[in-house]
Amino acid sequence: MRTIFLGNDSWSVPTLEALASAEPVGVELVITNPPRPAGRGSRPTPTPVHDAARRLDVEVMEVAGVREGEGRAAIERIEPDVVVVVAYGEILTPDVLAVPRLGTVNLHFSLLPRWRGAAPVQRAILEGDETTGVSVMLLDAGLDTGPVLASAETAIRSDDDAGSLGDRLASDGAGLVVDTLLALDAGTAIPVAQTDDGVTIAGKLTSDERIIDWSNRSDAIVRRVRAFAPSPGATTTFRGALLKIVRASSWQAGDASSPGEIGAVHVEPGGVPLVTASGGEVALLEVVPAGRARMSGADWARGARIEPGERCR
Question: Quick check: 34 and 59 in contact, CB under 8 A?
Fold first, then answer.
């Protein structure tokens, strides 16, 4: 089965690995984005998919997209049986989707039709969903509107952040994609059209959404921290400087506690810094101060020597 794989993210890699090790599936070509500046020196850095393809000894092409140009020409030249897309980020046009014999298969990180769009993992955490999953679907011209071929559900754990949940979904989906391709090739896969009931859109995350509003409920703030962790991190300011919060938990104030006004910071006896929110407090378990490395909240508070009345804003 001649296969072309499109992906960019670390969450794309488990599926590429599974396809490369599945003997009936021949990965003819991997297409991924060109290197982009990253790290402190802003050095051009290949995508995780590029590095995985090299390690797997699979031909890889670095192009900005496949709707035209070299990427489009490569797909037409190879005439694949199937194109597999995981965390690629480009909406493919109908003429590109029509090239592969079996269609274009996408691994989407939600249980469709819930959370169609760019950020399904983060939106599920932000919204407080208790479960999510993966869907293997045939792409059409819409935004994640194509028929679903297979799906698998998983619980969202209370300590999941976007990183851990996305990693688990990527792992769960990899084998499911291989099984689905084999069923497609055998003619036993059954596409199920999505209904209009339960549709939600997982729009791209914005920089404004990273900013913590301490007047919100403590549990909603903790979900925001989890949704933006480990990167780019939810943010607040303390003493006028940016403070990223990458791990937090709700801390319910007892009757004897006097946490102060919204945003007030104080340190509990064990050394963990607490910030007052609506209906409770938020424990800052891990933070990234401006210009410094990730550290425990207790270490940050010890170094900051927080004074009574100081606030996060």
Answer: no
Classify 2-202 by CATH class.
alpha beta
In this prediction, residue 254 carries a pLDDT of 53
Instruction: Name the class of domain 208-304.
Output: alpha beta
Structure tokens at 202: 């997982």
Q: How far is 288 from 310, CA to CA, in rounded Å?
A: 18
The Cα–Cα gap between 107 and 173 comes to 7
> What's the rounded Cα separation, in Å, for the pair 110 and 154?
10
Sole residue written with tokens 């274009």: 104
Write out the residue limits of the CATH 3.40.50.170 domain(s) in the chain: 2-202
As a whole number, mean pLDDT of residues 255-273 equals 81
Residue 284 has φ and ψ, to the nearest 5°, of -90, 100
DSSP-assigned letters across all residues of 114-143: TTEES-HHHHHHHHT-SEEEEEEEE--SSS
Q: pLDDT, tens digit, for every residue of 180-221?
A: 999 999 999 999 999 999 999 999 999 999 999 999 999 999
> In angstroms, what CA-CA distances link 194 with 120, 191, 212?
17, 9, 35
